[in-house]
Specification:
Blueprint lengths: L10 H5 L13 H13 L3 H12 L4 H24 L6 H17 L5 H12 L4 H11 L2
């Protein structure tokens, strides 16, 4: 077995091929632009990387649908578990996630998704007024 030796100067990131954040000469042009823009606009570097990633690595509509279906299933599962378990401190989080799913669906062309999801969860949990109040806030109903 080969022993891993890493200099203190480059660290593990240097060993696997990622440049030190202070060595800008090793960054790609778009990475430098992202870091500079993040500092200039005072926004998170991760968010800026994500936006840049979307521009440089586009997905087909089929891939988008597949990933969205996967994420949607997780959101519904989480919502059902939290609300049925009466974890009230997480109702706002779940309502926000459900509203986000609805907005994405409407953005993908499914008109009335917001109203449909709101009504589905209102019917599913009719006795959870705290959750319904959170939903009204996020769904704008």
């Amino acid at each position: 077995m080969k022993k891993l030796t890493v200099s203190l100067k480059s660290g593990i990131a240097g060993y696997v091929g990622f440049p030190d954040g202070n060595d800008l000469s090793l960054q790609m042009d778009f990475e430098s632009e992202i870091v500079e823009e993040s500092h200039r606009l005072k926004i998170g570097t991760f968010w800026n990387y994500f936006q840049g990633w979307k521009k440089y690595f586009q997905m087909s509509q089929e891939e988008k649908n597949t990933y969205f279906a996967w994420a949607e299933k997780i959101v519904y599962s989480r919502a059902n578990a939290i609300v049925s378990g009466q974890h009230r401190s997480h109702y706002g989080e779940v309502a926000e996630l459900l509203a986000l799913v609805a907005e994405i669906k409407e953005g993908m062309g499914k008109l009335g998704a917001k109203q449909m999801i709101f009504q589905e969860y209102k019917k599913k949990f009719p006795r959870h007024s705290s959750f319904q109040a959170e939903m009204r806030g996020y769904f704008g109903v």
